[in-house]
Amino acid sequence: MVKIILISHGNMAQALLETAAQIGSFNTKEIDTFSVSGKGDIENLPSKLLNSLGDNGTLILVDTLGGSSCNSAVQSTQHLKNVKVICGVNLNMLLTAINNKDKMDLISLATKVLEDGRKSLVDISEKLKQL
Asked: How many angstroms separate the CA atoms of 94 and 60, rounded?
């Protein structure tokens, strides 16, 4: 099983996890969430992250590229081979990760999460005009 970790500014990570749990039934305790909302949070994040890593790989889903949560996750784990950090998490990406974490290895899961995330970004207004 690939470990999933969510990191965001504010309460987004926890809210995203709670929303995903309303859609699908899974054990939310298997997924760690971290909130970055101040200097103390960002200073403590590296040690929390390293203590939360899974034995069979860890997929870290972060809210925004270049933000403090992303930068801290990358700096803390870049030396580790069995960790992937993906930025721009959305609900579809999280659901894909949850539904496939027991069936795929880390590399395959990260690839699928990215693909499904890209597929979920649609200008539906334009798409409807084409019908």
From this structure: 10
Structure-derived torsion over alpha carbons of residues 24, 8, 115, 106, reported in degrees to the nearest 10: -80
Chain segment 97-118, per-residue pLDDT in tens: 999 999 999 999 999 999 999 9
Q: What is the CATH number of domain 3-129?
A: 3.40.50.510
Neighbours of 57 (CB within 10 A): 21
Q: Helix crossing, 12-23 with 91-100: angle to 10°? A: 60
pTM as predicted: 0.92
In 3-state terms, what secondary structure has residue 33? strand
Q: Which range has the worst mean pLDDT, 12-16, 33-37, 56-60?
A: 33-37
| Residues 55-75, mean pLDDT to the nearest whole number | 90
What's the length of the chain?
A: 131
Q: For residues 42 and 17, give the distance between their C-alpha atoms in angstroms, rounded to a whole number.
A: 20
For the chain, give every domain's residue range: 3-129
* Cα(27)–Cα(78) distance, integer angstroms: 28
